[in-house]
Amino acid sequence: MQQAGILGWGYCLPSKVLTNHDLEKMVETSDEWIRTRTGIEERRIAAASEATSDLASVAAEMALTRAGLAPTDIDLIIVATVTPDMAFPATACLVQANIGATRAAAFDLSAACSGFIYGLALAKSMIETGAIRHCLLIGAETLSRITDYEDRNTCVLFGDGAGALVIGPSEKHLLLAIEVGADGTGGQVLQQPAGGSRHPATAETVAARQHFIRMDGQEVFKFAVSKVPEATLSLLHRAGLTPADIAWFVPHQANKRIIDSVAKKLGLAAEQVVINLQRYGNVSNGSIPIAFAEAAESGTFLPGQRILLAGFGGGLTWGTGLVQW
Ligand code: UT7
Asked: What is the CATH architecture of 177-324?
């Protein structure tokens, strides 16, 4: 069986920066509160002319360049996102057209902030079974479009951006193991209530601000700090490894306190954790691939090192992955 590995990586961040001090002028908050409760200092915001597919396409082109592949080498494009350009066609189809990946099948994947890890699981199995050769997996968001800038509980957290990986048959940068899970009974703690078939868009849903993210932050926090270590230890156990075998940890970038708690439970040192949330905030599906691609680009990972990935979010969903560089 051919093993699947990472052939290329890319990312795209919009140029506009929204700082904590900017937010102080918009809602009742403070730079001090945001830094100490979340670790976030600033986030990027897409221009009015930029949609999710635009950020995704730039990240995709960088990943193809790093992989040394042409767009026509790609068999499948997956875009993991909670902010597609529109309900349909899929953002992945828009990316396919933008980059000229004419041979590729394309679809979007919806698993909230865990979507990128779900996509990794799918890409790995489709490559290893020979169903496809090259997958372009993108995590991309314009969360600013569904963020309520009158709600201080959520608006300080989110940012825009995209990260991409090209995955294909490889002898290095291997996807060793991936596990994903869900608990649908917890769906109400993190949602965008309106705009789907349950509550279609009406003047009333817009007036009630139901097209924005609604979150019970404390419940998500509790879920993350218990489920992520549990899922990670399960993955490592299945791979015959322990946290001592991990060189780097690339977690979903939601909250520095969550990341610190998970790392501590796993016995990982602060220096082993790849963190960029101070610059970008929580980019949902973009968080893990942006952090991973930035680290790969700067030569952080060394041959043979094992890298642990962990995502969690709405659904509730979670996913963990193990890469060997
Ligand atoms: O990718 C999706 C996953 N999402 C997450 O991982 C989010 C997980 N949750 C969190 O990161 C944290 O729960 C938050 C950062 C959202 C909130 O932090 P917290 O320590 O759980 O704060 P809290 O909700 O318990 O609120 C504490 C206080 C409250 O005031 P009172 O009731 O104690 O007077 C809030 O009203 O902080 C207040 N508060 C704020 N104050 C200043 C909430 N947001 C703000 C704010 N600025 N932006």
From this structure: 3-Layer(aba) Sandwich (3.40)
Atom of ligand 1 nearest to the CA of 254: 6
The structural domains of the chain, with segments of one domain joined by +, span 4-171, 177-324
Ligand 1 atom 36: the closest Cα is on which residue?
153
Ligand 1, atom 2, lies closest to the CA of 313
Q: What is the mean pLDDT of the chain?
A: 98
Q: How far is the CA of 107 from the centre of ligand 1 (A)?
A: 34
**What is the pLDDT at residue 202?**
98
**What pLDDT score was predicted for residue 229?**
97
pLDDT per position as a tens digit, 235-277: 999 999 999 999 999 999 999 999 999 999 999 999 999 999 9
Q: Does ligand 1 come within 6 angstroms of the Cβ of 156?
A: yes
What is the architecture, at CATH level 2, of domain 4-171? 3-Layer(aba) Sandwich (3.40)
Gap from CA of 263 to ligand 1 centroid (Å):
21
- Is 113 close to ligand 1, i.e. is its CB under 6 Å away? yes
255 closest CA partner among 296, 312, 185, 190: 312
Answer yes or no: is the C-beta of 29 below 6 A from any ligand 1 atom: yes
**Residue-wise pLDDT tens digits, 270-310:** 999 999 999 999 999 999 999 999 999 999 999 999 999 99
The CB of 284 under 6 Å from ligand 1? The reply is yes
Beta-ladder partners of 142: 160
**Cβ–ligand 1 contact at 324 (below 6 Å):** no
Closest ligand 1 atom number to CA of residue 255: 11
Query: Is 1 a residue whose pLDDT tops 90?
Result: no
